[in-house]
């Protein structure tokens, strides 16, 4: 900024988000994109939601395409007991020949030759513990996992405790167990647990230990994915935004500023995790190192650094990495089990995995049964029959898996991230994900299909289904009173005055940690008009005093300020819609004011 104009920056607390008209309320998230799903507040859905979702059209062109693919692979898959799927230099042995050369109709139950009896392999039953989860080699058979020496497959499902109200944790975990899963997996969001440097929050809905212990109580093992970067479609992939204060800090590298912050966080976090491990009597059977680093891959020393960081702090259970199928070569660490993420079988699904790891059991760490939604994009559901078929394939091929998401939940507050390939798009409030349970925790077609399948492979009966949660309909109400933003300002924290505009991460507030989420109002006095050029991230409303002049967003960077006769207040309300969660772009997610002003008349 030129001249002597002083700039007031008013930082708005999160609650103001409620006031901002129809920009990002959960309701508009659900309705705006024409989806029939709700957030936590969309009550009265209950079983109705199920009915509305109904069976997907069986012969959509999309499905037909899948079926053709499926038919293409079936000769490989269904050729009997002998080596069945030949992927590059490695065979996977199947358990059971398929009886038909047509894709299996999803109604035909599948019975493996040997049914599983894992009734003694739960955290409740298994008291004598000396060896945890182990990856064993197979001779003349597939490699396999053992737990305390017993052969075992991981039937995992993801539930993020921070996306589910704590009051519902037990219900969701019971439903996971009743479906036939034996393991719950969760990310751990650094930005929520350490909102200010050195100030940790593991209370209430962030009580990680309570969630893990509850899982054990319900009879589930836990695979923990502590990051530090987790992606998870969270703001900045779960990294605290204060790490963006210094532009020389390189996130997800061994840059000293970054790893020092990681070390401090891990000192605190891992100390909490260590006593919850299998060998200490807890349910944690495996811990993941970082997340999909192969897709980022900027520093070859980074993953070994984190590997060591976990070991040094007392993590003794099985360690694993998780990568997209074509990024395993970049993402794996020597001596750590590599796992992959996928949504359907392809010819090259195991190509890279087998290059880095021969003779180890296969774990699909993320089997995507749905996908997240972004603003402005249509919601595309996944067919429940496809999910059932793929999971059947996993079981037949001795492949362990983790369903992502079993229950997605909600991006509460401003925790959502954004994506940026060609355009920036914010992730919506709902994290329904078209998961196995709906956002409201209700059963779906996928749930019943998977439960039936799982029941058919166990000798012991599954637990009874928990009752659907109670739903109520709130009466409609009319808002009769409101408070304009301008009247609220006097009640907010004192404005920060600065000669140059500061991005929200660098506001000298919250003990020097800046502002992580929400909105910032910038004000400057101007005494003439002209063109205002601002690359606002992610969007901004421009006002002259209280009169709206326009909106700045991705492609609109100019707003014309009319000729004025007396000095007026230029106000720019900048909204952080969620930092991108992926790719090198995370380095550049400061929100915003790169204020490249070219108001043709200089500022006074
Ligand atoms: C399953 O295994 C447990 C413990 O090993 C055993 O007591 C039980 O009888 C088995 N159940 C069946 C149905 O085989
Ligand atoms: C990494 O961290 C150091 C020390 O904190 C810092 O001085 C340096 O500029 C950072 N960035 C790069 C790119 O090395
Ligand atoms: C955020 O993460 C997901 C993967 O979980 C990815 O598909 C999405 O594109 C990411 N956002 C980007 C690239 O900005
Ligand atoms: C705009 O705001 C300035 C500063 O508060 C005030 O002096 C001026 O009277 C206002 N002008 C109008 C047209 O409201």
What does this structure look like?
It is an enzyme of class 3 (hydrolase). Its EC number is 3.2.1.23. The chain is of the alpha/beta class. The chain contains 13 helices and 23 strands. An eight-stranded parallel beta barrel has the order 7-8-9-10-11-12-13-14. The chain has a six-stranded antiparallel β-sheet with strand order 17-1-18-23-20-21, with no helix packed on it. A three-stranded antiparallel β-sheet has the order 4-5-6, with no helix packed on it. It has helices spanning 26-32, 46-53, 61-77, 169-179, 190-193, 208-218, 256-273, 302-312, 328-331, 351-356, 384-396, 445-457, 485-488, and strands spanning 7-11, 83-87, 90-93, 133-136, 144-147, 150-152, 155-159, 183-187, 221-225, 284-288, 318-324, 337-342, 363-368, 400-407, 418-420, 424-426, 496-498, 519-526, 530-533, 539-544, 547-552, 558-561, 568-575. One 2-acetamido-2-deoxy-beta-D-glucopyranose binds next to strand 23.
Which key features would you list for this structure?
single chain, 604 residues, alpha/beta, globular, disordered C terminus, binds 2-acetamido-2-deoxy-beta-D-glucopyranose, beta-galactosidase activity, Glyco_hydro_35_CS, hydrolase
Treating each run of at least 4 consecutive H or I residues as one helix, how many helices?
13
What general outline do the C-alpha atoms trace? globular
CATH topology of the largest domain: TIM Barrel
Low-confidence stretches: 1-9, 11-91, 96-111, 593-604
Bound chemical compounds: 2-acetamido-2-deoxy-beta-D-glucopyranose
Strand neighbour order, sheet with most strands: 7-8-9-10-11-12-13-14
Secondary structural class: alpha/beta
Give the distance, in angstroms, between the N- and C-terminal Cα atoms: 10 Å
Under CATH at level 1, the class of the largest domain stands as Alpha Beta
Helix content: 10-25%
């Amino acid at each position: 900024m030129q001249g002597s104009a002083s700039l007031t920056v008013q930082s708005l607390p999160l609650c103001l988000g409620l006031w901002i008209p129809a920009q990002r309320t959960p309701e508009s998230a659900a309705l705006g994109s024409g989806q029939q799903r709700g957030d936590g507040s969309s009550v009265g859905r209950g079983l109705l939601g199920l009915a509305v979702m109904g069976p997907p059209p069986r012969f959509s062109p999309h499905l037909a395409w899948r079926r053709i693919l499926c038919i293409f692979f079936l000769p490989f898959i269904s050729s009997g007991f002998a080596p069945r799927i030949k992927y590059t230099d490695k065979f996977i042995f199947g358990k059971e020949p398929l009886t038909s050369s047509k894709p299996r109709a999803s109604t035909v139950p599948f019975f493996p030759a040997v049914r599983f009896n894992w009734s003694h392999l739960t955290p409740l039953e298994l008291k004598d513990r000396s060896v945890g989860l182990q990856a064993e080699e197979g001779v003349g058979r597939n490699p396999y996992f053992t737990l305390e020496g017993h052969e075992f497959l991981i039937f995992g499902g993801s539930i993020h405790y921070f996306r589910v109200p704590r009051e519902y944790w037990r219900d969701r975990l019971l439903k996971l167990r009743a479906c036939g899963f034996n393991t719950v997996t969760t990310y751990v969001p650094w930005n929520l647990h350490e909102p200010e440097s050195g100030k940790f929050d593991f209370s209430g809905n962030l009580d990680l230990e309570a969630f893990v212990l509850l899982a054990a109580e319900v009879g589930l093992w836990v695979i923990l994915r502590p990051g530090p970067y987790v992606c998870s479609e969270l703001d900045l992939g779960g990294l605290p935004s204060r790490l963006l204060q210094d532009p020389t800090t390189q996130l997800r590298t061994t840059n000293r500023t970054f790893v020092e912050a990681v070390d401090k966080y891990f000192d605190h976090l891992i100390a909490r995790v260590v006593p919850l491990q299998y060998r200490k009597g807890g349910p944690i059977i495996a811990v993941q190192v970082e997340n999909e680093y192969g897709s980022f891959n900027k520093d070859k020393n980074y993953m070994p650094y984190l590997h060591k960081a976990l070991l040094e702090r007392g993590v003794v259970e099985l360690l694993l990495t998780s990568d997209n199928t074509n990024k395993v070569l970049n993402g794996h660490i020597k001596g750590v089990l590599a796992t992959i993420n996928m949504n359907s079988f392809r010819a090259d699904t195991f190509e890279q995995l087998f290059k880095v790891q021969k003779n180890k059991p296969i774990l699909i760490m993320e089997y995507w049964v749905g996908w997240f939604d972004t603003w402005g994009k249509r919601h595309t559901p996944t067919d429940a029959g496809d999910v059932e078929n793929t999971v059947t394939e996993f079981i037949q091929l001795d492949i362990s898996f983790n369903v992502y998401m079993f229950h997605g939940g909600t991006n509460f507050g401003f925790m959502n991230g954004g994506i940026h390939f060609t355009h920036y798009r914010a992730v919506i409030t709902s994290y329904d994900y078209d998961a196995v349970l709906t956002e409201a925790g209700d059963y779906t077609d996928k749930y019943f299909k998977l439960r039936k399948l799982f029941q058919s492979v166990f000798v012991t009966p599954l637990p009874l289904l928990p009752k659907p949660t109670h739903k109520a309909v709130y009466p409609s109400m009319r808002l009769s009173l409101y408070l304009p933003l301008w009247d609220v300002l006097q009640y907010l924290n004192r404005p920060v005055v600065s000669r140059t505009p500061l991005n929200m991460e660098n506001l000298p507030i919250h003990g020097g940690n800046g502002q992580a989420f929400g909105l910032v109002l910038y004000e400057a006095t101007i005494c003439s008009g002209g063109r205002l050029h601002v690359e606002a991230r992610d969007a901004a409303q421009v006002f002259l005093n209280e009169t709206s002049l326009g909106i700045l967003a991705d492609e609109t960077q100019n707003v014309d300020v009319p000729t004025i006769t007396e000095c007026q207040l230029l106000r720019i309300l900048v909204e952080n819609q969620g930092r991108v969660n992926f790719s090198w772009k995370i380095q550049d997610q400061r929100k915003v004011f790169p204020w490249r002003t070219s108001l043709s008349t200089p500022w006074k």
